[in-house]
Amino acid sequence: MSNATNPPLPPTGPGSPQDVPPPPGSFPIDPTTLPPPIRDEVQAPDPAAIDTSAAELQDGLNRCPKCGSTEIRQKPGTDLLICLYCRNEWHGEGVEEEFGLGEGIDQLQGTVIASGARDIAADAASVMTFKCPGCGAEVTVNTANAMTARCHWCRHVFGVNEQIPNGAVPDAVLPFHIKKDDAVARIRQFVDKRRLFALKEFKEQFTPENVVAVYLPYMIVDGNVSASVAGQGEIKTREYTQGSGDDKKTYYDADVYSVDRQVDFTVDDLPLESSAQRGNLDTRSNTNNIINTILPFDTKNAVKWNASYLAGITSEKRDLDVEKLRPHLEDELLSIARAQVEKSVARYDRGVRWEQERLSVHGTRWVSMYLPVWLYSYHQPGPNGGMLHYIAVNGRTGETMGSVPVQQWKLLMTALTVGTFLEAIALFLVGHSS
């Protein structure tokens, strides 16, 4: 019979009482007994947060500070916003100055995350509904393809400014400077230089006016870092050849040294793509790597998030969180570390083979930002879905790079022709010298 003052034990099912797990906290784990990677993760402080939300825009309305109109657009070619009703112009607040994001990089410790860079909620929806404060009507915005909408009753313009946890609203935006006509001209010039070898179908369908303005999601990272590398460096002492004709070989003698280097450095505004689709650099199916070649962007001029900058422009949502991007960040930091020590190993004229690398990231700061790109795309049919070619124009600097599908037989014929021509020149020179 059970004691009335004590509740009955929970059923355990088959087996002994050990089938019931002990209550949480019954046996606290000593972090010092854990392996280093797990111990470091357990003991790491929770990420600090920077609130970059714009409280004045939480109702979805961005009003002209002069007349109160919501008819607001970016003034082409500038970072200014302009009221389409009273023509008032004003500049968005610089995100770096507003939140001190350019300061204290060498003092960073742990992980600091701006509110627009927080983890994306698994159940967050793309569709947002606003209640218009002017007439009470409900206005729906699908953040998968738009960030602004107009009330169909009173014509108020809404923008998604609330930093909802679905990756659609970043901390900052870098406005477009390059206009469409300029982007079209740059793409046309890029293709014209490669038209000789371009695929016939591509030339027939090439329509640069179809270029689209798109804001691509990036994480902009500051870091306080130390790195050490070790390996072997060689200094050539002698070079000689042995044998003759086809058996002739060149040999090198070199002194071999153990090389160790340690460097402390900071990174300021390192951009990392935060879209899994754009981060897919499978060159068998796409030319996403083209987008990396139009870097850098002048991220120091980014302004606080304001959906009015996206009126009439498409955008892609961020779908990668900080932890998913951390391995990519560490690869980039190691590359920077190698570049930092390169000058100090110049004396090793046979090169240095780094065999050990150690990276210590003391602190990072993550800010989510939209960067402006003009994109022209062309799908080349083929096996496994074909190839998606891009031509990209940096929306700030105009830097242009792209991929043009080519006719392989033309390249082969040209290579053979050039090879035959060079061979003829070589024979002529040999005969002339004799």
Can you describe this structure?
This protein is of the alpha+beta class and 434 residues long. A hairpin with a 5-residue loop joins strand 2 (72-74) and strand 3. Strands 1, 5, 10, 11, 12, 13, 14, 15, 16 and 17 form a ten-stranded mixed beta sheet that branches. It has helices at 36-43, 95-99, 180-192, 200-205, 276-279, 289-292, 322-342, 408-433, and strands spanning 48-50, 72-74, 80-83, 89-91, 110-114, 127-131, 138-142, 148-150, 157-159, 172-173, 212-242, 249-273, 303-304, 314-315, 352-380, 387-394, 400-402. The protein has eight helices and 17 strands. The protein is 20% helix and 31% strand.
Question: Which keywords apply here?
Answer:
434 residues, alpha+beta, 3-stranded antiparallel beta sheet, 10-stranded mixed beta sheet
Task: Tell me the Rg in angstroms.
Answer: 30 Å
Could you name the ranges where pLDDT drops below 50 across 5 or more consecutive residues? 1-19, 425-434
Helix content: 10-25%
Mean pLDDT: 83
Could you tell me the number of beta strands? 17
Strand content: 25-35%
Distance between the termini: 117 Å
What's the short story on this structure?
The chain has 434 residues and is an alpha+beta fold. The protein contains eight helices and 17 strands. 20% of the residues lie in helices and 31% in strands.
Topology (SSEs and partners):
Elements: H1 36-43, E1 48-50, E2 72-74, E3 80-83, E4 89-91, H2 95-99, E5 110-114, E6 127-131, E7 138-142, E8 148-150, E9 157-159, E10 172-173, H3 180-192, H4 200-205, E11 212-242, E12 249-273, H5 276-279, H6 289-292, E13 303-304, E14 314-315, H7 322-342, E15 352-380, E16 387-394, E17 400-402, H8 408-433
Parallel strand pairs: 1-5, 5-15, 10-15, 11-14
Antiparallel strand pairs: 2-3, 3-4, 6-7, 8-9, 10-13, 11-12, 11-15, 15-16, 16-17
